[in-house]
Amino acid sequence: MIVPNIYMTCRNHVRLTIFSRWPLWLVAVTALALQCAPALRFDPPTQMQAWLVYFDAERGLDEVREHGDLFDRISLFAYELTPDGRPRPAPGVAQMIPRFLRLAEETGYSPWVTVVNDVRFSRDSAILKDPYLVHDVIANPVRRGAHAIALAEEVESDGFAGLHLDYEQVFESDSLEFRSFVDELRHELERRGLGLEVVVEPSHGPLPHHRSASVSIMGYDLYGSHSGPGPRATPEFVAGLKNRAAGDADGAAGLAIAVGGFAWDPDGGVRTIDWSATDSLESEAARSSRAEPSMVPNAEFPDGTEVWFEDPESLRSKWEAASTAGFRRLLLWRLGGNDERLFSFLRDLRRGR
Fold first, then answer.
1. Is residue 261 part of a domain?
2. Is 41 domain-assigned?
3. What is the rounded distance in angstroms from the CA atom of residue 223 to the CA atom of residue 308?
């Protein structure tokens, strides 16, 4: 009964305002609209970031050119590691760097770079997310210090403003060494006037020392290539990540959300779906729905393929949960393969709409 009473109060106020001294009408109605408007269910992100990946360079660079001014920071993905632990650009990244830095000057974002523990043997041969090499380079104090220096020197020489550290599947037994490494890396970067942000997995892996570094949580792949069909993330899943973010240096951790989706084929294959390709899925599907309470759309096709994907409504529900949980910075995985629906949503989100 509360809502009808509020409605009647607002309506009566409008009636009284309109029939009172009309020169005050505009001021009174404006104030009334603010009083009667529903409160925002979320705080807008204080900072918005995105990743640009080497394996979708041209589409990503086109989106940076058109929408780079939307982001405070864009991080080029990625540096990888050689078998002896030295950082180097992934294939094609060295050629992207000059264009990326030029676009940063033109559109105003801060240009960062991400390092990931993919070990590259040749252009076509790599181990993804290798915890053994991370162990080798951080367990020994001498190698740990040398690795921190090598990373900082690479970031500085290439002209970036900061580094996203994205070492995944790190052994829990290496937690103390990992925290020491983050401290040393932060020191080396700060000496050069460069920033550091640590990207951590949603459910496992060591965290930096409490409030020693900015932290962003990967808020996706609840379901994905490693599982059967389901939403890539849900509001409940996102809200549950707040404990992983408790040690952020500024007390305002970042949440990384993913756009696009996955398709599970009847033969067991799983493939990614671009955000821009999902606009027509529901009209082509034999069945489509929006899961409650996750708000994530999904569709099933006549051949048995099942697709779960994202749209503005599902992304908004996740950021509302993230904001309530205390997240303040939003990171987008990733640029490339998107359309105006995404960027319009992000602009509205920044305005609190």
1. no
2. no
3. 9
* 19 and 88 housed in the same domain: no
CA–CA distance, 152 with 115 (Å, rounded to integer) = 11
Give me the residue label for tokens 């037994």: 173
Segment 251-265, tens digit of pLDDT: 889 999 999 999 999
**Which strand (E) or helix (H) includes residue 349?**
helix 340-350
Which residue in 35, 36, 157 sits closest to 94, CA to CA? Answer: 157
What is the distance between the alpha carbons of residues 9 and 36, in angstroms, rounded to a whole number? Answer: 9
| Same structural domain, 242 and 99 | yes
The reply to whether 119 and 14 lie within a common domain is: no
16 and 111 fall within a common domain: no
Instruction: Answer yes or no: do 235 and 344 share one domain.
Output: yes
- Is the whole-model pTM more than 0.90? no
Cα separation, 89 vs 158, whole angstroms: 10
Closest CA to 262 of 274, 251, 280, 276: 274
> At a CB cut-off of 8 Å and minimum separation 6, what does 123 contact?
91
Using CA atoms, how far residue 202 sits from 7, 146, 220, 237, 295, in Å, is 42, 29, 8, 9, 20
Decide: 295 and 235 in contact? Cβ < 8 Å.
yes
Domain that holds residue 10: 2-36
> pLDDT tens for residues 127-141?
999 999 999 999 999
Same domain (yes/no): 194, 252: yes
What's the order of all strands across the beta sheet hosting 261-264? 270-273, 261-264, 306-309, 297-300, 287-290
Q: Are residues 51 and 9 in the same domain?
A: no
